[in-house]
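Example record used in the benchmark description.
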Amino acid sequence: MDQPDQVPAIPVQRRPERPVLHNETRALADMIDRLTSRFPLHSRATVAEIVSQAHRGYDDSGVRDFIPLLVEREARRELERTPTTTAQQASEPSHVGVR
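Model output (structure tokens):
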């Protein structure tokens, strides 16, 4: 029998990773196109990386409906603060994508 001062161990449950919905992925790809046009002095790779970083910040969000809007707002602010890339960096190929 358990003694009164002992507390039973409660197993820690991790939240399963939330799948990224197809329409969310499409919205992020369109967003990268839009932001690359709006910020032409930044390379597409830079824009994609900033969008990806902002998107990762919402991995644990339960409601996904407004994630693309929030990511775009955050990415736009970051692009406005980020120094532009040089012509050499902009011409380098990149394998950065959206999750």
